[in-house]
Amino acid sequence: MASEYVSLQNIKFLLHDVHRVEDLMQYPLYADYDGDSIDMIIDTLKELADEYLFPYLEECDRFEVQYENGKVKVHPQILKVMQMMGENGWIGAPYPVEVGGMQLPHMVAILNEYIFAAANNNLNGYPSLTMGAAGLIISFGNEELIETYLEKMLTGKWQGTMALTEPQAGSSLSDITTIAVPTYAGHYQIKGTKTFISAGDYEGIENVVHLTLAKIEGAPAGAKGISLFVVPKSRVGADGKLQPNGVATAGIFHKLGQRGYVTTQLALGDDDNCHGYLVGEPHHGLAYMFQMMNASRISVGSHGAGIASAAYHASLEFARERTQGRRWNDRDLTLPQTEIVNHPDIRRMLFMQKAIAEGGLSLVLQCTRYEDLHAVSDGEEKEKYYLLLELLTPLVKTFPADAGIQSVSHGLQVLGGSGFCEDYPLEQYYRDIRIMSIYEGTTGMQSLDLLGRKVQLNKGLAFKLFLGEMQQTMAEAADMPELQKYAGQLKSEVEKLVGVTKHLGKIAATGDIELFLADATPYQQMFSLVAIAWQWLKQGITANKVLQAQEKQGDDLKFYQSKLHTLKFFYVYELPKTEALAAAITSGENLTVLKDDDLLI
Ligand SMILES: Cc1cc2nc3c(=O)[nH]c(=O)nc-3n(C[C@H](O)[C@H](O)[C@H](O)COP(=O)(O)OP(=O)(O)OC[C@H]3O[C@@H](n4cnc5c(N)ncnc54)[C@H](O)[C@@H]3O)c2cc1C
User: Fold this and answer.
1) 176 C-alpha to center of ligand 1: Å?
2) Do β-strands 71-73 and 226-232 pair in parallel, antiparallel, or remain unpaired?
């Protein structure tokens, strides 16, 4: 078991110095907080994660969720985490005080997700999903729904879920078939099957509230016919008591990772007695659900960055202890073996892990900063932050997930044979992080969203705004002799990205949409590398200012030097990968679109 999983110094550096959370405190919405209270919150979250989550990392994996006779048994720590999160107000962290929330900036609330996911990604999903589901009721539910469900969910007594996926409708939600039939009593009768539903059921929790997508009988085809319902496992009867609501757990899934985080298959209304309560207007369900999906995508990004961070700390700790071989310029066999952290190949893998984990978290904070600025601004400014957030959401979901998987794989490699074995946490991190690029929209679907929709959003304004944001950072870095070179490199990378985007735009103009979108994923990968390079330049500017002031010493000084070093590493080892991606995208070879002869044999 490693001893650490996140760096509080890094979190505070990113939050205060790079992304300036204090800017938000001038607005009435966040005026109750200041830098010190935010730091206290972060320290508390870390203490809670140390006590409630991290010690159970291995147990949650080994004590795999069990299903017997329709009942789901999970690790007892899950109920304790739900209770602790509910009683201390964390489930309502980003929501208004009037509804029982803490009105915490999203930039801070997301750190709860990050720290908890790093500590134990088998436990953090339960409160996180409840938070998202409660958010939908707050935003779109009527008085009765708020009255019946909110307090129970925010206090962790009732679990919340998102019930979207069906066996025939995963990426393609417009194909859901769960049906909702209106009744004279006002509720709807729900019937259908939902699959892969996280936290969908477990023993010990009082109730589970499924925020469910379904189609009202006779609704228009496709996404325009989807409505959102609250479908509780147990409904509140006329006597105020809970009674079964026709939601049966048909089974659970046995998974590669996240074995303590239950994934269920739900049968709704097999007994023709499953009540659903409409949220908001009929047929607006998918639009409402996007609130939760977008928030969850940022959460998934934070979870990917969190696991990548935990893996980095575990690998580094191992590499500092494990001795093997000697340094290549010092082959004296009478000397003791050297720690593997001294070998360049190991250092390369560790720097890659650090670059991904810390770059990924920086992008997560950038996005949540836009979310907060959107919440406090009006008019054009509001639109600007909305567009920037929309554009970056597919990236923040995807980069920490995909690059996180690679970084954890490097981390496992650092441990050699031990990395493959259960005695160390790397193999579990490797399994646990793998889901991040699948749920909440696969990498492929996120990439299609980026290229097919977001880059063109508002006639390309979102993309232009993003270029403007990077331009500001590059201009600041160009004034610093230590960073000029990297500002110049980012400038040419941005030009390359713009060139590739124009190239793809020309294909789109021909009307061949399949060809246009065929390389959406390599495009997204290229875009992500540029966005993360931007985040590293931002970190470099901040670190460089501190170093120039020459006030830091010892470990503090090393922290900032390490930031600059990792920036350089990213620009030398990772960023140039855009060249290969751009070459593939612009090759004109058209090798993946299905033609008459399918050569996949
Ligand atoms: C552990 C786990 C937990 C989950 N939790 C939840 C949950 O809580 N609630 C919930 O509703 N769902 C949940 N899901 C479902 C998850 O969101 C879906 O698995 C995911 O969206 C992909 O859908 P699918 O599995 O049906 O794959 P498919 O949609 O069949 O996709 C298979 C592959 O085809 C690609 N593909 C699909 N369509 C296209 C296209 N048009 N163009 C190009 N490529 C395409 C995909 O990118 C993917 O690589 C969970 C899944 C898992 C495994």
Assistant:
1) 13
2) unpaired
